[in-house]
Amino acid sequence: MKSMNDRLHGQCLAKFFQVAMVSLTPHPDPGLTRRSNGSAGARPNAFTLIELLVVIAIIAILASMLLPALSRAKSKAQSIKCISNLKQHGLAYKMYVDENRGSYPLTFGWAAAGGIGRTNAYLGGAAANCGGRVSQTNRPLNVYTSNTEVWWCPSDKGGDSYVMEAFDRFGYKSCWELYGNSYLPAWRQADSNFRTEYVNGDASSPQSKSSNTESRIGLKPSNKIIQGDWVWQNDCMTGDTKTHGRDLWHTYQGKRYENMLFGDGHAENYHFPTAMADWITRPVDLNWQWW
Prior knowledge:
291 residues
């Protein structure tokens, strides 16, 4: 069905171009004649006003048909870049675990696994636990990634519903700008919400809030969430216009998707069920769709 639609679309474009080329062909004015010497009464062929208006109309129609396709292509390219980032994060986690006796990182906040420190990071409300001002050198996965830009998602529009005042009142445009990181990991044992078990631990209290282990995640890594787009967990509860659409980073056919990294290192464009909004206190189940 998709290939048939593509063919019809291509045929329509070809027809428009054909009409445009015909319209662009100058037509001689039959009322103009040359004098007997063949030069004095001659006037160059010219476009009529109607022909120019037809060409302008055709160009406008073509543009209206092509712009949505270009927009979809741009969104797809951004999503592919985001998926590539997450795969690099997966490799970074693996190398860290290998060098730290099978343990995942301890970080000073949700955002502090990688990325850059923001000296102007917002610290109000829930943002106080995000670690936006933790320096680049104190973000443990940076040493395993090619550069800090891999922690920026090009589709990042912000939308952290817990700190919407940072976007609405203080002008932050993205989670990258706010925290120096576009990706939210499963952090701290006490915050194993939405049927998702923690991964990283809290560096401010390593004894009571330790990180998870490779042996535990290895029990069922293919559906174990490691991290994803910053809005994957926070904003699934909103169900209203609170975020003004900022939390819709990736959409397809009107549905919201998030790019997610799993324990076996694969990353995918994932659609969470709308019922997830009611699962904040549901227990973790390794045999569920994710854990």
